[in-house]
Amino acid sequence: MTTALPPLSAEEARRANQYGSIKAEVVDDVSREVANRAARTAVDEADQLDHAAGSLRRHALDEVVGSERAALRSRRIARLSQFIDYAFFLAYALFAIRFFLAMAGARPTAGFVKLIVAITDPLYAPFRNIVESPKLDGGGVVLMPVVIALLAYGVLHLAINRLLRVVVVRKTAI
Asked: Most buried residue, 10, 25, 125, 141, by CB count within 10 Å?
């Protein structure tokens, strides 16, 4: 299932670029502030200037460390999301194959049909016999439980991805 939101990897790349520009901006601001104050202060204000510069430096470093931790967490969650997407798309493909084999009237004793049924049965079991499956004129069957399973797993997939997006959201403004 596709969503209107950009993939997590694209969002992470955008955030990494934004993080680099914010980091450079903070360093420039601190340097400019120190240079400006040093140029116009008297010798007796040097201690206050050192204290202010140290405070700005600590704040900037704390922000950078926090951003780096958040970026690392985002990368890990993006990788997890990719794995989850792959697993769901694989399940979707196998369910689609099972659906079309049943519609085509494939023999249940054929090796490939047995393989697809064996792989999809654990995911299909909760939906088996939930509704009747109409028979087609050519001997095939429209497996309505497979359609329901695809819809249910699609909703689950969407919910998992939305949950991961909630976990990834982080502060990007300073």
From this structure: 141
> In angstroms, rounded to a whole number, what is the distance separating the alpha carbons of residues 76 and 152?
27
pLDDT mean for each 10 residues of the chain (174 residues):
57 75 80 74 66 80 77 83 94 95 91 95 92 84 92 96 80 50
Q: What is the C-alpha separation between 123 and 15, in angstroms, rounded?
A: 36
- For residue 141, the 8-state DSSP code is B
Axis-axis angle for helices 111-124, 144-168 (nearest 10): 60
Q: Which two tokens stand for residue 142?
A: 């429209």
The overall pTM is greater than 0.70: no
Q: How far is CA 26 from CA 22, 38, 62, 66, 124, in A?
A: 6, 18, 11, 14, 54
